[in-house]
Structure formats: structure tokens, C-alpha cells
């Protein structure tokens, strides 16, 4: 019951913060010229979750990170560029990051990647939606591949490195695209903030260690493409994020 109450708290707190015009927003955030990669951010769903589409114009292949909601909008953005989606990458399995997973998988046949420790969250999706949002959703598809720290794979000409960044959930990961100098941090690190650690599977000390060891080890000019709010950079967060400054000075 504790887990149920915590999820309801998340829905209520976040719902009141989201203006209607922010619930479906598509922005090209990082222009890629020399390597022909394009990264789009779409802010979707009840709690304004950022879904990213990373496409390679040379091969016309793409990956989707966190299909949050509104599968038709996601698929329309893919179609607009004539891309073929090869991978669906999940940073974690909270409901607001996976609601369009089934439809996107059915439409694309793409490979789903998730960390094993977040499988229980994914499997509980129908129950969560029924209890707290009074919505019926089908069971989500299972991941095709379970990711782990240090994994590396390529979509078209884009190579992703997996970094295990638990603390928001037990199986949270971040995906690093070194060629484009961007890390997709999910709900681990935000602009001026960090992810919640008061939900099931969350742990403040673990989260802060994940950020400092796995993300702050990246160069300052790397873009942080987070699961909510605007993008930022590693250097900006290293220099001004109050949670990180406090942790780096005083520890846990």
C-alpha cells in the first residue's frame, strides 16, 4: 500500500504543475550538421515527460528514448523525417515514461531495452493506471534486451553507451551519445535539480553517487537531455546545481 500511496502522490503533485500548452510540445533541441544526427524532444503526457527521438539522416534509422504518451504524435514525428525506428530505449519504467510503449513497439517492431531491476515497475503498469488514473491500459510489451552498465550498441551511425544510474528507481539507466556530446539522463539529473528519491526503489545517497560518479565524469560541454524540464549541460550542473554542490562539499 505504501507504493500505491507514493504513486498517487506523484500524480497529484506533478499534475498541478503542468500547463495545458506544455503537454504536447515538439522541439528540435540540438542541431547536428557534420554527422547528420538530429535530436528531437517532445514533451508529452500528464506530467510533461520528455520523449526523445534520435535520428541518423545518413541511414534513416532512429531510436526513441522514453515513449511517454501520445504514440500518434511520436510516430508522426518519425514519419516526417522518413526514419525507421530500430530501438526503444527506456531510462526507467515509471508510468509517465512508458505509456506509448505498446503502440510504438507494435507500429515499429523496434527492440526494447530496459534494466532488469525495473521489470517489476513495467509489469505493474496496468494496475497503477487502473487504481490511480481510472484508465485501462493493456500490459506493456516485455523488453527484448536487458541492459547493464557498460553496454554499447549502435543505431544507424549513432553509438549509445549505457551507464547504470539508480537512485530514482532501482533500475534507472542513462544513455550517452559521445559523438553528439549528449547524455539522456531520464529522471536522474535535471536542470538545477535531481530526480525524486521518495518513491519505491528510490534512495537519495544512491542517486547522488550515481550522478557524481556516472554523469559528472562526463565533460562539461555535454548536453543533459533530461526526462523533465529543459535541457542543461554537465558543466552548468557541476557549477550551480545546489543538490550536487551540497553533496560534493558535505557528502551524504
Give a short summary of the structure.
This protein is an alpha/beta fold and 252 residues long. It has helices at residues 2-15, 71-80, 101-108, 119-123, 125-133, 204-215, 234-240, 242-250; strands at residues 24-30, 37-44, 49-56, 61-65, 84-89, 111-115, 145-147, 152-155, 158-164, 173-177, 182-186, 189-190, 193-194, 223-226, 232-233.
Q: Mean of the pLDDT scores?
A: 88
Report the C-alpha radius of gyration, rounded: 17 Å
- Write down the overall geometry: globular
Helical percent range?
25-40%
Output the structural class: alpha/beta
Following the backbone from N to C, one meets helices and strands in this order, namely: HEEEEHEHEHHEEEEEEEHEEHH
Q: Which regions have little confidence, pLDDT < 50, spanning 5+ residues? A: 1-29
In DSSP terms (H or I, runs of 4 or more residues), the helix count works out at 8
Amino acid at each position: 500500500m505504501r507504493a500505491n500511496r507514493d504513486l498517487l502522490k506523484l500524480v497529484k503533485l506533478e499534475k498541478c504543475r503542468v500547463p495545458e500548452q506544455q503537454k504536447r510540445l515538439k522541439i528540435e533541441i540540438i542541431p547536428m550538421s557534420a554527422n547528420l544526427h538530429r535530436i528531437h524532444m517532445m514533451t508529452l503526457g500528464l506530467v510533461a515527460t520528455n520523449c526523445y527521438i534520435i535520428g541518423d539522416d545518413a541511414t534513416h534509422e532512429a531510436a526513441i528514448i522514453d515513449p511517454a504518451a501520445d504514440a500518434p504524435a511520436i510516430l508522426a514525428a518519425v514519419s516526417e523525417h522518413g526514419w525507421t525506428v530500430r530501438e526503444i530505449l527506456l531510462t526507467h519504467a515509471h508510468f509517465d515514461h512508458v505509456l506509448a510503449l505498446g503502440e510504438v513497439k507494435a507500429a515499429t517492431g523496434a527492440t526494447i531495452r530496459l534494466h532488469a531491476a525495473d521489470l517489476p515497475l513495467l509489469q505493474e503498469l496496468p494496475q497503477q493506471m487502473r487504481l490511480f488514473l481510472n484508465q485501462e491500459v493493456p500490459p506493456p510489451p516485455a523488453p527484448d534486451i536487458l541492459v547493464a552498465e557498460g553496454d554499447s550498441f549502435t543505431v544507424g551511425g549513432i553509438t549509445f553507451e549505457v551507464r547504470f544510474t539508480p537512485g530514482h528507481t532501482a533500475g534507472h539507466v542513462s544513455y550517452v551519445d559521445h559523438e553528439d556530446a549528449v547524455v539522456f539522463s531520464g529522471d536522474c539529473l535535471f536542470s538545477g535539480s535531481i530526480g525524486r528519491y521518495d518513491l519505491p526503489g528510490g534512495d537519495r545517497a544512491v542517486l547522488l553517487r550515481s550522478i557524481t560518479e556516472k554523469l559528472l565524469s562526463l565533460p562539461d560541454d555535454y548536453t543533459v537531455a533530461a526526462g523533465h524540464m529543459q535541457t542543461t549541460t554537465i558543466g552548468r550542473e557541476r557549477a550551480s546545481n545546489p543538490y550536487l554542490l551540497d553533496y560534493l562539499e558535505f557528502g551524504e
